[in-house]
Amino acid sequence: MEHGLDTEVLAVVAACVFLWGLVSLRFERANITAPIAFVALGLIVANGPLSLIDIDIGSADGRAIAEVTLALVLFADASRVNVRALRSDPGLPIRLLAVGLPLTIGLGTLAALVTFGGIDPWIAAVIGAAVAPTDAALGAPIFEDRRVPGRIRRVLNVESGLNDGIATPFVTFFIVGAAEATAHETTTLGSALVDLGIGAVVGVVAGVGGGMLLSFADRHGWGAPAFQRVAVGALALLAYAGAIELSGNGFVAVFIAGMAFGTALQRDDTKVLEFTDDAGTLLSLLVWFLFGAAMVVPAFEHARWADVAFALLALTVVRMVPVAVSLVGSGLNTRTVAFIAWFAPRGLASVIFALLAFDDLGSRDGFPVVAAITMTVLLSVIAHGATASPLARRYGRHADRLPEGRAEHRSVDALRTRRHTRRAAGSAAEPVE
Questions:
Q1: 48-94 pLDDT tens trace
Q2: Pairwise CA distance, residues 67 & 240, whole Å
Q3: Could you give the 3-state DSSP secondary structure of residue 3?
Q4: Which of 200, 260, 330, 384 has the lowest CB atom count within 10 Å?
Q5: Residue 295's Cα: distance from chain center in Å?
Q6: What is the CATH classification number for the domain harbouring 100?
């Protein structure tokens, strides 16, 4: 019987997910995280000498999986980091998101212009914005290590939960500008702004409406808890698909819907996000596999010394200087600022932004973007994955020696992180306190 589905790819990926489920805890104790493992698995099974499967970077199926994954992750993270949750300690997150993130995008764009001589400014802006968001999943040991002060874990959690959604309009706008500048134009900058506006409106309506309806049904005992969790995942997809059907930006819609939903939901119950979390986790493993299978080798084939130089700048100066500037006057000591500045792993959002840029810009202009982003993400997966646990322990010992009245030890309200595998150093199921 003929199948439209590539069952060979499905079988290999499913086997990898199953095997990781069997041995994940043992590997994570050795600082081998799920992203590291699935990048390696994709690289091994889809490329020589094994070459068990063939996955194309421009695959429509791959892009669809990537887009749905980002939609679910944006919604879940924004729902968890909602307006009510931020009220007890908004200062540090606002500094990092309102000052640090725009500075990071601007400095990243400048770094791309300097390292890639002659590159179009719009393409440089795409690269700079795409590598700006951080990914909490790659720094899981930090959020799970109770020796790191709760306020520091909290601000890193809030930043990583919101900066990908905030960066999305920038990336979208810059891709449209790059497409116009390189004769791949499919829409105009004015149309892109209208799309962002439509997405925002759809997000508010879906998030507020969904939160109020779920709260109403919960008060009257209409919905079973298991199906309420499924309904939340469906709401995320509804916001995403509904915005696209109305010619809006689906990612902006789902991000704003998540924040609106978390704020409108009249109960503080993170279990309602469990299905969305689990679905996002599974799909994120597929995206990391796709990254290793289809993006790493082409990126290295097109890579130049400039890609390595940009990646090193992106993970250090481009991140650390804006963080240092944004935290001036915060009361945090130098080692704390350095700790926050270093733990900015680039992950899922950057990978998906690279796929979107490749699809819209074509291979000639898209491959340089993919190469720069891929090199940055690959170095980040290795460097941040390997250093998260040991540096968290070292910083935790330093924080223990700080006086109780220091800014690092200020008490903050509980805020849940995205769920991760339970580790020896702590439990991801526990809230940041």
A1: 788 888 888 777 788 888 899 999 989 988 888 777 667 777 889 99
A2: 9
A3: coil
A4: 330
A5: 17
A6: 1.20.1530.20
- 423 strand-pairing partners: 426
377: closest CA among 342, 351, 340? 351
pLDDT band at 428 (very low <50, low <70, confident <90, very high): very low
> What is the DSSP-derived secondary structure letter of residue 432?
B
What does the block give as tokens for 400? 């223990």
Question: Residues of 329-350 as b/e, b for ≥16 C-beta within 10 angstroms?
Answer: ebebeeebbbbbbbbbbbbbbb
Instruction: Name the residue type at position 213.
Output: L
Residue 55 placed within a domain: no
Record the tokens describing residue 186, joined without a space: 């499919």
- Residue 107 reports pLDDT greater than 60: yes
Under 8 Å CB-to-CB from 174, ≥6 apart: which residues? Answer: 122, 125, 126, 129
Report the alpha-carbon distance of residue 207 to residue 95 in Å, rounded: 26
Sign of the four-CA dihedral 45, 46, 52, 58: positive
Total number of domains in the chain: 1
Please tell me the distance from the alpha carbon of residue 135 to that of residue 156, in angstroms, as a whole number.
10
The pLDDT tens digits of the residues spanning 393-407 come to 899 999 999 888 898
Cα–Cα distance list, 225 to 22, 78, 79, 270 (Å): 28, 21, 18, 12
Asked if 77 and 97 touch (Cβ cutoff 8 Å), the reply is no
Q: Is residue 302 part of a domain?
A: yes
Q: Is 426 helix (H, G, I), strand (E, B) or coil?
A: strand
Q: Is 272 inside any structural domain?
A: yes
Q: Which domain holds residue 255?
A: 92-409
- Note whether 353 and 370 are within 8 A (CB): no
Angstrom distance (rounded) from CA 272 to CA 276: 8
Q: Tell me the C-alpha to C-alpha distance, in Å, between residue 217 and each of 207, 224, 236, 262, 379.
A: 15, 10, 18, 16, 46
| pTM for the full predicted model | 0.88
Amino acid at 221: G
For residue 217, being part of any structural domain is answered with yes
b/e 85-98 (16+ beta carbons within 10 angstroms → b): bbeebeebbebbbe
Looking at residue 136, what is its pLDDT? 75
Does 109 score more than 90 pLDDT?
yes
Cα separation, 295 vs 370, in Å, equals 8
